Amino acid sequence: MTMNKQEVADKAFSLAKSYEKKSGGCSQCSLAGIFDALGVEDTAIFKAATGLADGVGLTGDGHCGALSGGVLAIGYFFGRDKENFDDITKLVPANILAKKLHARFTEKYGTCRCHDLQTSFFGRFFNLYDPEDMKAGMEAGMLERCSTLAGEVAQMAVEIILDAQEKAART
Question: How many angstroms separate the CA atoms of 5 and 11, rounded?
């Protein structure tokens, strides 16, 4: 049975949310939800996404790791190949779609910076290297909120990817 676009996007949401709740690492969780919903197996990109969690290196001082995972998935499908490295125009398709994901994200959340997201959600930033802050974050509902965010990003990214694939197939 073939799933429609909304069912695939919903599957990405559910998978990413469950991965974040179980395993953490928002960048890998959103990417895994997207890839699993779309039937992609690429362990190298999955592994490379590790350090993008919690605003890069668990610092909060970068954009949301789940957003990073979504952008990586867009690049996987629409990015410039090494053989076209000298052609700067090949940067355009993936960047247009990444910008679309960024716009949807910031429209929904008001920011894409992890530190600012945590402050908006919880009234403060949690240093995940500090065991007391980690505990406080979990008690504040960080696991539920961030897993939902990872799912929402995966859903957005899948919608963007499938729309772009559909458009490319028509041209």
Answer: 10
